[in-house]
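Re: weekly structure request thread

Next one in the queue (455 aa):
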Amino acid sequence: MFQGKKVLQQCRRKGVLTGMLTLCAALLLVAAVYSYHAGFGYVVTIDGAEVAFLAKSDLKELTAFIDQLTDDAEIAFQMQVMRNETLDFVEDRRPGEHQSIAAVKDELRQRLSFSTYGYILTVDGRETVALKSVDDYDRVLRMMKKSYAAERENAVLKDFVIQEEIDFIKRPVQPDEIVSVEEAANILLTGLPQRKTHLVARGDSLWSISRAHNISMAALEAANPQIINRQLKPNDELNLVTVEPLVNVLTVEEVTVTEKIPFTTKYVKDNKLYTSQTKVLTNGKMGEKEVTYLITVENGQETARRVVKETVLSEPVDKVVAKGTAAAPKSGTGRFIWPLASGGTITSTFGPRWGKMHYAVDIAAAGGTPIRAADGGVVTTSSYRGSYGNLVVIDHGNGYSTYYAHNSRLLVKVGERVAKGQTIALMGSTGNSTGNHVHFEIRKHGTPINPLQFF
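Done, posted below.
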C-alpha cells in the first residue's frame, strides 16, 4: 500500500516537471519569434540615400507627419505644392538599430523641400518671372495695357504693341519665386536691377559717369564704397546698378484737347497821335478750337503726333491799334500826357503825407512798365539820385520841368532831346521805395505843382 502511494507521487512530480519544461520551451519560442520580428523596420531613403532606420510600428505616424509637412507648405504658400525629393521606405531587419520617431521627423523636416508648377513668362525666349496660373499670364498683359491707358488724361488707347515676343513655359519652381500679377507687370515695364561695370577713363568723374548711365550720384556712390572723396583714377572699375525695361511698349493714343487760337494785331494810322504814341481801338480776344491728335508713345516717351480732327469753337477777335503819324514836338507845349501809356494805379497823391509834404503823384504798375515823357524837352538828369533812386528830369523849356523817379532802368542820356510820349525809362522800385511805381512831379520855375490839375 505504502509502495503504491510513493510510486504515484513520483509520477505526479514527473508530470509537473514535464509541464513546466513545455511552458518554458513555449515562452522561449515566443521570445525568439518576437525578438526576430522586432528587428524588422524600414530604411528611410531620400533620393536613394539612406537617412534613417525606422521601427515598423512608427511607419504610420511618420507618413502622417509627411502629409502634415505638405499641408503646412500649401497653407504657407497658398498654393498646391509637391515634394522635390523622392522618399522611399525599404523593409529590412537590423536588431537594435531603430532610431526614435522624433529623430526621424527632425531629419525629414530639414531635408524635405517643396515646389509647385509655375508659369514662367518669357521675353524673346528669355525667362523672366514666375506666375501662379495661365490666367495670371493673361491678367499681366491686360494690366500692362491698362497702365498705359491710364497715363494720359482724356486719352483713348487705340493701339498697344509689345515689341518683343511674350510667351510662357510651365515647369516646377520654388513657391517663393511666384510673384503677383501687379509685380510681374511692373517688372516687365520697369525692369530689374542689373549689375554692370564701368572702366574709368581719363577725364571721367562720378557726375559724368552717372549722367552717361542715367543713375543718380547717390546710387553710384552706394554701389562703390571704395571711392574716397569722389576721387577716381584711370582703369578703376566701378560697379553700376541700372534698371532697364524688359519689354519695349509702343502705344498709339487718341487725345482730344481744347486749345487757344491766338489773335492777330492790326495797326491803323492816326494823324492825331504822335509817332511815339499808340492807342488800342479794339482789344484782341483769343479764339478756341477742339483738336484731336493721334500720339505715338514709346516706353512712355512721345515720339510723334498728328492732327486728325480740328473744330473751331470760337473765332479770335483781332486787336486793332492806332499808331500815330504826327511828328511830336521836341520842345514843351505846356500840355502834359499821362506818363504811362495806359492805366496804372494812383497810390499817393500830391499833398500832406505822413506828417510832411508829398510833392508828386505816385503811380503803380508792374515792374518794367514803360515810362514816357509827359511833354517834349531836354533831359537834364538821368542817373541815380539818393532817395529818388534812378531819376529822369526833363526841362521843357517853358518854365516847366518833370521828374520821373524810382525807375529800374534809364533809357535816355543827359542832353538828349526827347519827344512827348517817348519812352524814357522802365518802372521799378529803386531808392526810397516800397514797391514798383513812378514818382511823377511837375515843377513850374522850380516849384512843385499838383500834376493832377493837368489831367
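The first strand starts at residue 40 and ends at 46. DSSP finds seven helices and 29 strands in the chain.
Next request, please.
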